[in-house]
Amino acid sequence: MPSTAPEAAGMTLVVHVAAAVIRGEQQRILIARRPVGKHQGGLWEFPGGKVEPGESVESALARELLEELGITVEAARPLIKIRHDYPDKSVLLDVWEVTRFAGHAHGVEGQPVAWVMPEALPGYRFPEANLPIINAARLPDRYLITPEGLTPQALLEGLARALAQGVRLVQLRAPGLDEASYRELARQALVLCQGRAWLMLKGPLHWQDEFPEAGWHLTARQLREPLQRRPGGWLAASCHSEEELRLAAEAGVDFVTLSPVQSTASHPGSPALGWEQASALLQGCRLPAYLLGGLGPQMLSRALAAGAQGVAGIRSFWPA
Ligand SMILES: Nc1nc2c([nH]c(=O)n2[C@H]2C[C@H](O)[C@@H](COP(=O)(O)OP(=O)(O)OP(=O)(O)O)O2)c(=O)[nH]1
Ligand SMILES: [Mg+2]
């Protein structure tokens, strides 16, 4: 889509910026240091620059990466879009993940560059708008939610198979279990996931102290309760509307699920958002968001094109 950068949004001029999360060996990501004296100078950034009038974001990305790093983009996909107002400037950071490139990446303009492990990104100082980009770069594109109606044993066996297949983010959902059984299951699941995948638990917030290594997935109702963010694991939330996405952003959660995109057997009563509305909601959302509801891994590219982090799924993601 041709851009009209800077584009007029009401009275504010929004500078459209194409930026890249470039993946290299061992999943390392390339970051560069912004020259002192430029806007946000001295801070680390994901390389990129302004989209010129009439230019597509993809062309701008390719041009900027050639100019700044001397590389040719061979494959890229949308990762996240962030609209941010600095006191002196408003930007739309249109971030793409570059999965393949040719050439040796180096600071063409003399800027320092570094290949860093995704886990190390939070240790670098980036501009204020970048936190959701860092989260998006660390998170996978699939989010497995465990199916209900299984015994704890069957859940653990399925989880072990899913991990063997490379699943890296799992929500332990077992609404049929009593509290004590769920907590016992959570302890065992955490052992299985250790060093291989992030496990997101559900339940009352005061349980969190019992599971310091776990992430927490809030219900939409919990988003409306007072919340104290603890350091450590991921914090996520289930959202179904613009209002819930806003509450999630205000609560400082790291990522969300947005559902239901399509109606499903697991939630037959909930009216589906449909793709059009889901995409519109994602446009206004600056957090990494997994689309959920009747979607399988085959819907991944459609979800990415709609602006999502990826796809979350229950049955379609559960190993046979
Ligand atoms: N490239 C990049 N820009 C970012 C990031 N985070 C962030 O807030 N920005 C802001 C800083 C700038 O105001 C704007 C990007 O502009 P830029 O200075 O890179 O643009 P450019 O490469 O076209 O530079 P120039 O030729 O205009 O000097 O977006 C980021 O991670 N990467
Ligand atoms: Mg630049």
TrEMBL record:
It is an enzyme of class 3 (hydrolase). One of its GO terms (molecular function) is hydrolase activity. It catalyses: 8-oxo-GTP + H2O = 8-oxo-GMP + diphosphate + H(+); 8-oxo-dGTP + H2O = 8-oxo-dGMP + diphosphate + H(+). Belongs to the Nudix hydrolase family. Its EC number is 3.6.1.55. NCBIfam families: mutt, PRK08999.1. This is 8-oxo-dGTP diphosphatase. Residues 12-156 form the Nudix hydrolase domain. Keywords: DNA damage, DNA repair, DNA replication, Hydrolase, Magnesium, Metal-binding, Mutator protein. Its cofactor is Mg(2+). InterPro entries: Aldolase_TIM, Mutator_MutT, MutT-like, MutY_C, Nudix_hydrolase, NUDIX_hydrolase-like_dom_sf, NUDIX_hydrolase_CS, NUDIX_hydrolase_dom.
